[in-house]
Amino acid sequence: MGAVSAAVEVTDLVYTYPGADEPVLRGVSLAVPAGTLCAVVGPNGAGKTTLCHAIRGFVPHFYKGELSGTVRVGGQDVAAADEDELARGIGYVFQNPFTQMSGITDTVFDELAFGLGNLGVPPTETRERVEEALVRAGLADLRDRHPFQLSGGQQQRVALAAVLIMEQPVLVIDEPTSQLDPRSTEDVFALVAAMKEAGRTVVLVEHKMSLVAEHADQVVVLDGGEVVLAGTPQEVFTDPRTAAHGTLLPEAVRLAGALRERGIDVPGAPLTVGALAAALGARDDGGADVGPAGAAGEA
Ligand SMILES: Nc1ncnc2c1ncn2[C@@H]1O[C@H](COP(=O)(O)OP(=O)(O)OP(=O)(O)O)[C@@H](O)[C@H]1O
Ligand SMILES: [Mg+2]
Questions:
Q1: Residues 6+ apart with CB under 8 A from 104
Q2: Model confidence over 106-138: pLDDT tens digits?
Q3: Which single residue of 2, 65, 130, 176 has CA 20 to 30 Å from 194?
């Protein structure tokens, strides 16, 4: 290890669910430095959620099975930590937000207050923190609604507000935008980015690569339970192997590729629509020339 300690460090993790023949994680290693965002991407069944469970300690504390290798969060071996330490240290947003709801509160407000009450936060401070989280998560209008009577997307926002409010230093967020409309998706990413800016370390599973490209410090591509590629968004999304592992590249990368196929020069390696527009605008000719018509044929 170098001088900077990783907030999350997974080493040679091999895990087999109880009764299964084959491991679903096959020697996974990754390191997430404190205060950075690591996106875990890859096809359905790759093992992303299982990896999240292992980082939070649900594997091996809740899911038994066969485990080797280690997960350290804040230097602590997760397998040796107790549930109380894990809950205080690591916020978790489930892929299915329904799983997250406590089932014992009648309003969104009380649902968010519930976790703080468990931590012994005094009522006045609890109210203030809940009010702030409701506004930041776009839930102010839903404060008196029953958690079970929310749409999937609304439940996802409650689940995210719940980790916003608990202020654990490490967050594991499994597909927080799967049921959100595009506008809410942007809002949720802004919220996750703000939590990172506040110094929290984030492991995020996400399929929307444009948002991953914009917000991740590191991208880990998981396929068949193995890390097949890892690096900065720039490294991963310009590597031809990424698409081969079932990952749809960010729109800007695909568009830049399509333009180049037609003989249109796109300088650099833009990952976002904004960067692509800037790259085209900054060409020597000022971007006025769209290249020879049909230069690359009509493939
Ligand atoms: N509780 C379980 N018991 C046995 N096998 C499981 C269990 N949960 C998941 N698996 C298996 O482990 C593998 C990885 O599943 P996992 O949920 O981690 O994938 P994922 O990458 O999160 O997929 P998705 O993109 O669909 O959410 C799959 O083959 C799945 O069938
Ligand atoms: Mg999953």
A1: 114
A2: 999 999 999 898 888 999 999 999 999 999 999
A3: 2
Question: Nearest-CA neighbor of 269 among 295, 297, 231?
Answer: 231
Residue at 150 is within a domain? yes
Q: How far is the CA of 45 from the centre of ligand 1 (A)?
A: 5
Residue at token pair 């936060």: 121
Is the model's pLDDT at 293 over the cut of 80? Answer: no
pLDDT in tens, 60-102: 999 999 999 999 999 999 999 999 999 999 999 999 888 888 8
Atom 29, ligand 1: residue with shortest CA distance: 45
Stretch (H or E) spanning 90: strand 90-93
Nearest-CA residue for atom 4 of ligand 1: 17
Domain identity same for 43 and 73: yes
Provide the sign of the torsion angle of the four alpha carbons 192, 195, 199, 200, taken in this order. Answer: negative
Residue 296 lies in a domain: no
With H, G, I as helix, E, B as strand and everything else as coil, classify residue 162: helix
Q: How far is ligand 2, taken at its centre, from the CA of residue 258, in Å?
A: 31
Which residues on neighbouring strands pair with residue 24, listed in sequence order? none
Domain that holds residue 198: 6-249
Residues 65 and 203 in one domain: yes
Q: Ligand 1: does its nearest atom lie under 6 Å from the Cβ of 49?
A: yes
Residue 104 domain flag: yes
- Per-residue pLDDT at 285: 63
- b (16+ CB within 10 A) / e for 149-177: ebeebbbbbbbbbbbbbbebbbbbbbbbb
Based on the fold, state whether residues 194 and 162 are members of the same structural domain. Answer: yes
Span from the CA of 49 to the centroid of ligand 1 (angstroms): 7
